[in-house]
Each structure stands twice: as structure tokens, then as C-alpha cells.
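Researcher: I'd like a structural prediction for the single chain below. Treat it as a standalone chain; there are no partners to consider.
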Amino acid sequence: MQRPSLKIILSLLLLTPAVLSEINVDLNYDEDLRAQQSKRFDVKSHFQIKCSVTGDDSVDAKWHKGSTEVKPSERVSTSKQGTVFSLNVKHATEEDAGNYECVVFKDDSEVKRANITLVSKVYVKMVANLNFVEGEAIKMVCQVVGSPTVTWMVGNETYDESRDRVLLEKDPESNVENTMLVIKEAQMSDRTEYKCMATNAYGDTADGTTMVRIKDKYAALWPFLGICAEVFVLCAIILIYEKKRNKTELEESDTDQSPDQKNTPDHGKDSSNLRHRQ
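Model: Treating it as a single chain, here is the predicted structure.
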């Protein structure tokens, strides 16, 4: 078992309760969330946590998320200005939410720590319009950010769980309960507005609305039937026209005689001469 070094022992002896009480740590909480020691951030944006230490100018600080020290990366960096220690995060994701600690050291010994909870702001994204065919399943997904609690409003009815024909399920992509709404067989009466409402534990809310329209299941046949009717009428007109034209030509051919069949004076003379010679 390793014994503590003389330097650490001396530093611990020097840090009397009176000295420790003079060191204060404050973080940049949101004013309305100061009681919860929390701060909001926007997904895909940059955010910064500041740890301000007063009472001793010779201290240093490190950042922890949970029980793990935060290491610098392409997105994450730390900075120091006097006794203000900052954690900077670029292109924030939902995974950046959680509990953080500013751990203050003096002469390699921890003297103070302060907590801050980062909370992602709530966002809701919905498709503006959706069309379904009568008898088919209605399925829509409410995309949410901020790990909120989700409820739905269908027309004037509010649903926080599955009821009657409306089924609320977990979207496998977001893994948030009630973010998928399913109605197994669409009816014409299902044509209405569907609102997804999200609320987190800090009272932040957001909502999105989709207008659902239901088409008649035979609607696709009407254009085809209309084309068939047009073709039928056109064929009937052509058939009637051809029949009348043929009839007219036949009547004209019966009334008109050929020039070879007409009796002319010369034709009569030839016949009489033939009888006279006989």
C-alpha cells in the first residue's frame, strides 16, 4: 500500500476549514433553473459551462461528467481565464446532456466541487400533411429532442396512452415512449389535425401538428373508369358514323345507273338493223 507523499500531507494540513470556507464556486446556471442547478443547451449548437472560483487565486479545476473526467477532443475543449474555468462544446448532441462537476484543486488536493445539469431544449418535428387511403393503417412519428414526455391531441381528444383505436408506441429510432401513433384501419372520420406535444421535467414544452387526409379507397379507380367511358363513347360515335356513311353510299349506288346500261338512240338503231338483216 502506497503512503501519501509529504507534499500531500503538508497541503492537507495547510487547508484548514477556515481556508476552505473562503473558497466559493459558482456555475453559470440558467436563472430560472438555478434552484435545480441546471442549464439548457441547443442541439447542434455550441455551449459553454463556466466555473467561477473566488477566495483563492492559486486553485485549478477539472471537469467531470458523472464520475469520468472530461477529456479534450475535436468537439470538446477547456479554457481558463484567471479563476474562471470553462468547458466548451461544439456541435452539441443529445448525448452531451447529463450531470457535470467542476472539481477544484489546490496543491493537487481537491478542495471544492460544484454540480450542474445540462438539459437539451425540447424540439418537435412533424410532417405538415399526410394522406392515407381508407382501410389502410395510419402511422406517423413525432421526432423529438430533449428526452421529453409525449402526449397527442387528435381533434379535441388528448391521449397520453393507447386508447380505443389510437395506439401510442415507442419509436425505435428515438427510443422515446409515445412518439409513434398508429391507427390500424383508417376511416373517413379520421381526417383531422394530429398534434404531438412534448414536455420535459423542467417545464419546457414544444409541439408540432400534422393534417391527415383520408382518401376513398376507390378513388384511384375513378380516373380509369372515366377514361374507359370516354373511349366507349368515342368508339360508339365512330361506329354510328361509319354505319350511316355506308348506308348512304349503298342508297346512292342503287339510284345511280351505269352509262353502259342506259338506252340511247344509237343503241336502238343497232337493234333494228340487226332484225332487218335477219
